[in-house]
Amino acid sequence: MPKDQKIQSSGADTLTPFSVEDGKIAELADADEALAIFAGQELVEVDEVSNKRILRRIDRIILPILCVVYGLNFLDKTTLSYASVMGLKQDIKLKGDNYQWLASLFYFGYLAWEWPTVRLLQTLPIAKYSGACIILWGLTLALFAVVHDFTGAAVVRFFLGAFEAAVTPGFALITSQWYKTSEQGSRTGIWFSFNGFAQIFGGFVAYGIAVGQKDHHSSTAPWKILFLFTGILTIIVGVLFLVFVPDNQLKARWLTPDDRVLALARVRDNQQGIGNKRFKTYQFVEALKDPLVWAFTFYGIASNIPNGGITNFFSQLIVSFGYTPTHSLLLGTPAGAVEVVVLIFCGWYGDKYQKRLLVSLVGLGIAILGVILLVALPPSAKIGKLIGYYLTLAGPAPFVAILSLISSNVAGYTKKTTVAGLYLIFYCVGNIIGPQTFRPSDAPRYVPAIITILVCYALCAVDILFIWWYCQQQNKKKSAIRAAASYLRVENSEWLDLTDRENPEFVYTL
């Protein structure tokens, strides 16, 4: 059988070991890594007690590491925003739109390396590659403390983006490996919510460094101390990631051999498997032709034009409301709390009631209200504008929902890594555009940028509703196929590395 030959099902309502197409049997190498464990064996049943016990173990070992790393992932991006009001601009002599370009260059690096990194996530051991990238980005971040001009800062920002490119797609793949689809929304919401914790933590750290430097007159600039602290912390956590996160269930040293098999069996209903190293051209082509994929990528760019602007300019926005630069470091922290509460609530409620997409619109609605307050309130209403900024941090809720749907609603490992790569490429494009909307000539209120954010969020709402409708339609079509008298179920279909479109057993999560 050709390496990228598709597997399809047909016939009567009986079970067969593999489907046959043009008289050729699927090779084992075409299937998921887990098939070698389950092929020819009796069905492994996971009772509820074992399921809960193993889930608790996974939550205690893997989830905390994902949370801390993702928090650092956000903190490392926002250090530039904190540094911008801690003397960075003056010390490295930034002029004109230099700061905007430093903000965008991170995403140029991210964009340049995103496609290679998703291919490496498929072909290399996923946890080892991700851990190496974490350590390298920590080292790069710490090196920012030695830059002395725009050119040096630009180089560091570019490579920082390149090394961080593995984190979000890698975590989406790890989540799909270890968790059932009914669990993925809440877990993605939890680890992504650590963006908010990072903003709280980073604000207090930056404030403490700024005040401490002012009181004790350290010879080292406060923004340099900030980069050194966050960089070294990231390196330490990267080492812990390598120690505790395995490449898949079969390599988990903190599970017994029997529990490793049960950890695999508990996710078989996902109809996705745990990974396949072979690049399959037909799955790549299918991803490019799938309307759902392009709806995902549209959201990636539309939602991150606001994100790119707000993430890099929130400290300067707060100063524009009438607060001091030092106070702006502290006043940004409640926004992180808003993000934490909204993401955890939307993730939990969406999974509990199987309405992940619709519930995420609550967060988007709150963010839209915040943007309206920013643009409509007069300059004198600084408390109202500050509250408006806080509310915008509810905006990532649908982004997280779609990220979890890449875990839940995209099957076929080549297709999944392709979609993750495309989503993050458009995420980069949005984040490159975002800072450019905050033009120096529009300071301090940046009204055109705020209006741009409002328009983008409105388009995002329409896109979310389309994705919800489209997945419903696809589920109806699959249900009709399964109900047909001629339908032939395929034994071990969940381990055959089929795509979501070619597997009639696959059900899209809403």
Write structural notes for this entry.
The protein has 510 residues and is an all-alpha fold. It has a single domain (15-495), classed as Growth Hormone, Chain: A (Up-down Bundle). The chain has helices at 35-38, 48-84, 88-91, 98-123, 126-143, 150-164, 167-178, 181-216, 222-244, 257-265, 281-289, 291-320, 325-331, 333-352, 356-376, 382-392, 396-408, 413-436, 447-483; strands at 15-16, 20-21, 24-25, 489-490. Strand 2 (20-21) and strand 3 form a beta hairpin. It is globular. Residues 1-28 have low confidence and may be disordered.
Determine the CATH superfamily.
MFS general substrate transporter like domains
Strand order of the largest sheet: 1-4
Class, according to the CATH hierarchy?
Mainly Alpha
Give the end-to-end Cα distance, rounded to a whole number of Å.
35 Å
SSE arrangement, N to C: EEEHHHHHHHHHHHHHHHHHHHE
- Our Rg estimate from Cα atoms comes to 24 Å
Quaternary structure annotation:
single chain
The CATH architecture is: Up-down Bundle
Helix content: 55-70%
Instruction: Count the DSSP helices.
Output: 19
Throw out a few tags for this protein.
4 strands; Growth Hormone, Chain: A; single chain; 2% strand; mainly alpha; 510 residues
Quick summary:
One of its GO terms (cellular component) is membrane. The chain is built from 19 helices and four strands. It is mainly α and 510 residues long.
Secondary structure elements and pairings:
Layout: E1 15-16, E2 20-21, E3 24-25, H1 35-38, H2 48-84, H3 88-91, H4 98-123, H5 126-143, H6 150-164, H7 167-178, H8 181-216, H9 222-244, H10 257-265, H11 281-289, H12 291-320, H13 325-331, H14 333-352, H15 356-376, H16 382-392, H17 396-408, H18 413-436, H19 447-483, E4 489-490
Parallel strand pairs: 1-4
Antiparallel strand pairs: 2-3
Helix pairs in contact: 2-7, 2-8, 2-9, 2-12, 4-6, 4-18, 5-6, 5-9, 7-17, 7-18, 8-9, 8-13, 8-14, 8-17, 11-18, 12-13, 12-18, 12-19, 14-15, 14-16, 14-17, 15-16, 15-17, 15-19
